[in-house]
Each structure stands twice: as structure tokens, then as C-alpha cells.
Amino acid sequence: QVSVVQSGGGLVQPGGSLRLSCVASGSIFTITAMGWYRQVPGKQRELVAAITSGGPPNYADSVKGRFTISGDNAKNTVHLQMNSLKSEDTALYYCNQAGRGVVAGQITEFNYWGQGTQVTVAS
Q1: Alpha-carbon separation of residue 38 from 1, 63, 95, 100 (angstroms)
Q2: Hey, how many other C-beta atoms are within 10 angstroms of the C-beta on 89?
Q3: Which residues are within 8 A (CB) of 79 and not within 5 positions of it... i.e. 6 or more apart?
Q4: Nearest-angstrom CA–CA distance, 49 and 23
Q5: DSSP assignment, residue 84?
Q6: How crowded is residue 6: how many other Cβ atoms within 10 Å of its Cβ?
Q7: Each residue of 47-106: pLDDT tens digit?
Q8: Is 80 helix (H, G, I), strand (E, B) or coil?
């Protein structure tokens, strides 16, 4: 079975930095896409940053120049380095990993979300 687990997050003052990490484990043949999303109450989940196998990273306009996504396909791990944090970055952050592996005894594509991590930017 495949699972995705996040770590990091917490409370930080405006202008500060945080790093989120996410690892996928289980019977994984390949990871084809990794991404970070965020959601605030009453709004839809939105893309923060994503990378696909062999492609350049994609960032939301609101985080360009401040956030950096990095992935290690060999370790099925993706990180999100968040610098110059603003109050409007406060949200529940979710990791997403997609690829191919064994799920319920079958070789298949998968797309899993992490459990969510709260990031709060406040003085």
C-alpha cells in the first residue's frame, strides 16, 4: 500500500521561513508528479507549487520568488522551502504525490494526499 506523510509547518512571524517535507512510502515504481497545495476555510484548495518528472517547477504567482519546491524521486520526497512568509500564506498545506505502484494488490496509477499541515504566519 502507498501512503504519503507530511512534516514541518507551525507558527512563524511575518518575514520568517518554514520548510515542509513529504515522503511517499510503499510499493512505488515511479513518482510522476509532486505538489503542494493550500486551503483556508471557506475557499477551495489551491496550487502552491508543483513539479512533474523531467519538467520545470510551477508556482502560484503569489509565491513566486519566495517559495521553492524540490523533489528527490529516488527517495520519493518533496520539500517546500517557504521564505519571506506573509500573513496571507496562513493556511492548511497539503502534499500530493502521483505515480505508479502497487495499491490493493494491483499495479496501478495512484494519486495520494498527505494529512495536511497548518502554517500560521502571525506576529
Answers
A1: 25, 12, 9, 24
A2: 22
A3: 19, 20, 21, 22, 69, 70, 71
A4: 16
A5: S
A6: 20
A7: 999 999 878 999 999 999 999 999 998 899 999 999 999 999 999 999 999 999 999 999
A8: strand
Query: What is the distance between the alpha carbons of residues 26 and 40, in angstroms, rounded to a whole number?
Result: 30
Q: Which helix (H) or strand (E) holds 58?
A: strand 58-59
Q: What are phi and psi of 88, to 5 degrees?
A: -75, -5
Q: Which residues contact 19 (CB under 8 A, 6 or more apart)?
A: 8, 79, 80, 81, 82
| pLDDT over 70 percentage in the chain | 100
pLDDT at 40 > cutoff 90 = yes
User: What sign does the CA torsion over 123, 10, 76, 111 have?
Assistant: negative
**Cβ neighbours for 71, distance < 8 A, ≥ 6 positions apart:** 31, 34, 51, 77, 78, 79
Q: Which three cell numbers stand for residue 51?
A: 513539479
Query: Which amino acid, residue 115?
Result: Q
